[in-house]
Amino acid sequence: MFDDLPDPKDSLLPELLHKFWYLLIQFMFELPDDRLQCKVRRLVHTLAQKFSLQIPSKGPVSYFFDDDCLLNPETDDSCRGILRKIFYVTGRVRNYDRILCWHPQYLKRFYKTLNFVMRGPGPLAMAHRSYLAVLSVSRHRNEALLRMLCAEFLSNDGDRLWLESVENAPRKIKLVLPIIAILAHQPWQLKPVHIAGLVFAGADSWTVPELIQAMVITSTWASFCGLIAGCGVCLDFDFNLLELLAHPGKQHPAPQTPPLVPRREGDPRRGESEPTQTSLQPKGKEGSPYSSEALISKLKQGKRVFKQDMSPNVAWRVAGTEGPHSQLAEEDEDGDEEDEEEPARESLRGAAAGEAGRQAVTRMARRPPPQKDSGLGSGCGAVNFLNSDPAMRKPRPIVAGSGEVSVSGEPFLGGYTIAHEDFDLKSTEYSIFRFADYSWKEHAFVFIQSFYEGAAEVLEEEFTYTKSLTYNTFYDSENICTVPFRGAIWHYVHRIQGVFHDDYEYREVNEYLGRDLKEFVKDVVCRPETISPARWLQYWALSGLNFRPEEKCHICLLAVESRKQAILLFGISALMEFETSR
Fold it and tell me: How would you class 314 by CB atoms within 10 Å of its CB: exposed for 0-12, middle for 13-18, buried for 19 or more?
């Protein structure tokens, strides 16, 4: 077959290469079948030699982790099998797939949910699903996911004009935009009246099944931004190649070494001033109760017994702070059990209710971002850490057909400026979400299953597995029960989202999570767009924790899945309350 290649002067050659060259490169790197990959590699090198083509290097998978620490599909059977299935379904093996191979059974369940929601039966059209995902990741300015989902939208026959601006999308899509913004940043602010604005919108009304699927899509992709940012996942290499194909005379830049990957001493890739693995070891305070050694000791002791009495409400408040347990212990606990008066339910029917709901949700989603800031940006005004690389500051285009679509996130925000603000315990606009009154399994699961059959089951399997996922190891120690540590992360995320579990001992959060680890988890959950290389180094250098790369990824998984469930709790409870009110 190699001897029968077309003549380089053939007029069809540029068009053929434009369409298929990057696919061959992609298959050369990503095919999980060794035999086929070898054949494609031979074809690529033959084409490159005959037609003087450049073969780009794949580049790194993560900005934070060395590729050497990733599992090798050629030698790991479980990893190879899952990647093969992913490739056959999606046609890709992405950088985040390779990172999640550290936890293959999670990856399997994640894709089971993703395939059901994005490709399985459901009320929303495929292009609309992809576009809702685009709108969701735009809230966190995540370029890696944004570019991927824009390409998926176009492959689902989406209208490329929608990618120029959300203003070009149909009114029905624009109506759900403020709901996405609220769920992505302050899900506890969502109210039944906001739902009425979508359900009673005339010809552009949303049905309850459509809204459920939209909420599942939003919770999936908004939370997944935290994993991408927390693990420093790099752009998939073919997007850079697409830009090169759009501009044939442009030189393809060599892939950059991940700026945070600590090279070993003697590694020829390491520059003279580049930090080593030794120089980036945790520098937590000596004797810190949150060092790896201290936490291992606590976990070996088993379940903690706290001598000092503290009401669940006060413990819940303390868990959301970075201070010691006693910080709020002296507060008047008599006021913590005050029963809030239930507001009178207004009728949520008809065009008038729909108009009132649309006005209310627009006001909420257009609230200005908080003035007090960490200095690293917040909400929709921040820039993803990938853009800190000078070569990546200018958004690169997605190429489709003969044109380009700029991808920066800005065209998809719709002017909704709401950003993350900490859950305010004293707010009069909303109250604590009590899990005992509205739980995932007894309420949200049943409601989702009633209108969107099959979705609740795959979500439940994903949540249950993530909460129970353990290898009984902690850094270099084995046979360690990590249930308290994992539970502290899960409940801390629910805590900062305003969800209260009355059967959990919240003092365990401050017992197992130190200030720096809390900050990392909170940024992964609430503001992944602010995770910069310097900030990422600071988390782990000051935490005193000697986690392996796969353990850091495990922490991100717990955080993003807990956030995903919290978003669904708020979204589905508002939808369920709306249904019972009309």
Answer: buried
Q: What is the pLDDT of residues 198-208, one digit of tens each?
A: 999 999 999 99
Tell me the whole-structure pTM to 2 decimals: 0.84
Q: How many CB atoms lie within 10 A of CB 110?
A: 23
Instruction: Give residue-wise pLDDT tens across range 36-93.
Output: 888 988 988 888 887 777 787 777 888 888 888 887 766 667 788 888 888 888 888 8
**What's the number of CA atoms in the CB half-sphere (13 Å) around residue 563?**
29
d(CA 493, CA 524): 10
Tokens of 553: 């990824």
As a whole number of angstroms, the distance between CA 139 and CA 227 comes to 15
Tokens of 100: 């999640």
**pLDDT for residue 100:** 94
Nearest alpha-carbon partner for 497 in 432, 427, 416, 561? 432
Q: What is the mean pLDDT of the chain?
A: 79
The Cα-based distances of 432 to 169, 265, 365, 552, 581 in angstroms read 36, 51, 20, 30, 21
Would you state the torsion angle of the CA atoms of residues 322, 323, 327, 333, taken in this order, to the nearest 10 degrees?
20
Cα–Cα distance for residue pair 272/260, rounded to 1 Å: 14
Tokens at residue 121, please?
């039966």
